[in-house]
């Protein structure tokens, strides 16, 4: 076997560089914050947009507006919105044709409505779902309001 192409010699530099980087990150306490950041599936966008504008932005730059379809996803989003500059933050929750739904197509089995009551047949301009920073619950808002929003 040719010594120049031995797998250890070819990959040794990459291996030692990775090991050194991980050690430095651990020493400076960066690994836990990096791990925490990597666990987060949502991104808070500080740009204030209407609900439609937020939807377009998320679909262009990420995947979609956030679907908070489980308690775990809701908790993850709540961690993200603490830095929002608006009191409410747009989510992917929408009312259309008599039903609330997630624009991602996720099931609406888990709910976290303000006063534990899903708005039935809300006024035409109050058919967009937002997350309230104070109550940490869902609410319906005027779709033309300009709010921060959460993408996934």
TrEMBL record:
Residue intervals of the C-type lectin domain: 42-152
Top-level taxonomic group: Eukaryota
Matching SMART domains: CLECT
Protein name: C-type lectin domain-containing protein
